[in-house]
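AraC family transcriptional regulator
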Amino acid sequence: MGYLRPDGHTISLYLQGGTGTRRVDGFAKSGWPGALCVMPQGASSEWEITQNFQFVHLYVQDQVLRRAYTETFDQDCRHMVMPEVTFDNAPSVEFALRKLATAVQNGDALLAEEATTTAITHLFAHPHYGGAANITIKGGLSPKLRNQLIDYIEAHLDQPITLQTLAEIAGLSAFHLQRMFQLSCGVSPHEWLLHRRLVCAKNLLATQDPIAQIASACGFSSQSHMTRVFKEVTGCTPSVYRGRVRGV
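Structure:
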């Protein structure tokens, strides 16, 4: 099986399986769950696949990647070198890509954008792939801008919120907005949004509204999505929480 990506870069992670996948054009080893592969723009490769597997592909256009490199590391984008990687361990990149896969499955655009920026940052910062040092951001957002972003999130809890939208409000790039929000608020934009949605859900669970309706009103993609997140954070399902609030 041949692979060619002439119009962008590909960062891939094997989520499950991979032991039956082998690159045959000069690479003898096979993959494994958690194995990282990176194919730079213009790279070609040949693969032998004998078993089923699941993986996540992150496709990034060259100009987008170079802009991110400049904004994150304050270096001339002409110095950017995209590594070619076939089956390697990079835990920080793996964590971000697994988060990306979860975000896509849940239809969570903000988390997907955050995971993408984090994966790219950790890839270039990894000692095997350049070891670039992040620039230090001081001061964070101004109080006025911080409040403006928080007010926007609060007013749109029931709607999809993207990192790009927040960045446009702030007049910053998505990469800078994510880091400055973290510096100013102590959590990422997605973590802030998730907290506010859970607070909203808890308040509405004290009413008679159906749980599916509450999930929609709080911006979750589905009732099952809200139930999964609610249990992860609180330790109980929305139904159990509702019973406790009502004293049932």
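The chain has a mean pLDDT of 91.
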